[in-house]
Amino acid sequence: TGAFNGDIRVTNNYRQQWSSVTSMPYKTLTMSLDAPIFKGKMKGDDYFAGGFSVNNDKAGQSKLTQNLYTGVISFNKSLSQGGGKYVSLGFQTGYGMRSLDLSQLSWDNQWTGSTYNSSLPSGEPAIGLTKSYVDMSGGIMYSQIGEMIKWNIGAAMFHINQPDIGFGTKDKLYSKTIVHAGGSFRLSKTSNVVLIPAMEVVLQGPTTMINSGINFKYILQDRSKYTGYYSEMSISFGGWYRLADALIFSMRFDYGQFASGFSYDMNLSGLTAATSGRGGFELLFQYTGVFGGATVKTVKSRI
């Protein structure tokens, strides 16, 4: 949170998946805002950061819906003069609400033995079910920023308090541990090509997810180093692999303070028989505000 080159960042991400196997495809919308606080006003190059996010997820015929509202705060400790190395500690707390519409489902009691009759009583509650809960998470990250290279490595634990998310019966959410690493590597001072690899390992209960891949960024126009008259313009393409599940293609376009991106999953799991490989797509829109002008030091470290 707040670990970026700018004064404010607004992100909007939308995902839709499995429209080929259901009339009610899974949809996820996430909106977030974060910003550094007291940057340049604390001892050395230390600073706090804060933000909040809203996540809406709707799945399947039952319209299983989850709304999660979270606030987050972090402290970024500088380990070097000039702010080139940081350790960041963050804590997040949120309020979640889940709902389920059972009237949209069909049940065994509505099967007559030869046909399905929706007018027969299902034996289930006629009204929707709801559940609210509090969710807490935390994480740590080390980052290093240079003129040619920028990289980071970190770990986080989500659902530390293992909230009960069950409808009517107790159902504790497994804690989720994530280890991640990534970077940006410009091939040379005169090169317009930047390599952006990344990976993550996610462990939650009995499940494991591993994502890894790389983006190739081509800088169409460098930002002017002293006047800021010209904005950086770049385009990125990449490929990613989610182990035993999907092959992901992505692209992104950056112009100055604005960015937009698109990615698509090709399903490779056992669900392929139903999906024919059609997984899901994501759309990204992002704005990074810089107010009052960036320093020469900050501009030089930007990749």
Please, could you describe this protein's structure?
There is one protein chain. The protein has 303 residues and is mainly beta. It is built from 2 helices and 14 strands. It has a 14-stranded antiparallel β-barrel with strand order 1-2-3-4-5-6-7-8-9-10-11-12-13-14. The two termini are 19 Å apart.
Give a concise summary:
The protein is built from 2 helices and 14 strands. It has helices at 272-275, 296-301, and strands at 8-17, 26-37, 47-59, 64-78, 85-100, 129-145, 149-158, 176-186, 193-204, 207-221, 233-242, 246-255, 258-267, 278-289.
Give me the strand/helix succession.
EEEEEEEEEEEEEHEH
Distance between the ends: 19 Å
pLDDT < 50 stretches: 293-303
Beta-strand proportion: over 45%
Shape: globular
Overall pLDDT: 89
Q: Measured on Cα atoms, how large is the radius of gyration?
A: 23 Å
Discrete helix count: 2
Computed structural class: mainly beta
| Total number of beta strands | 14
The largest pleated sheet is described as: 14 strands, antiparallel, barrel
Helix content: under 10%
- Biggest sheet: strands side by side, in what order? 1-2-3-4-5-6-7-8-9-10-11-12-13-14
What order do the helices and strands come in, and which of them pair?
Blueprint: E1 8-17, E2 26-37, E3 47-59, E4 64-78, E5 85-100, E6 129-145, E7 149-158, E8 176-186, E9 193-204, E10 207-221, E11 233-242, E12 246-255, E13 258-267, H1 272-275, E14 278-289, H2 296-301
Antiparallel strand pairs: 1-2, 1-14, 2-3, 3-4, 4-5, 5-6, 6-7, 7-8, 8-9, 9-10, 10-11, 11-12, 12-13, 13-14
Give short descriptive properties of this protein:
14 strands, 303 residues, globular, single chain, 14-stranded antiparallel β-barrel
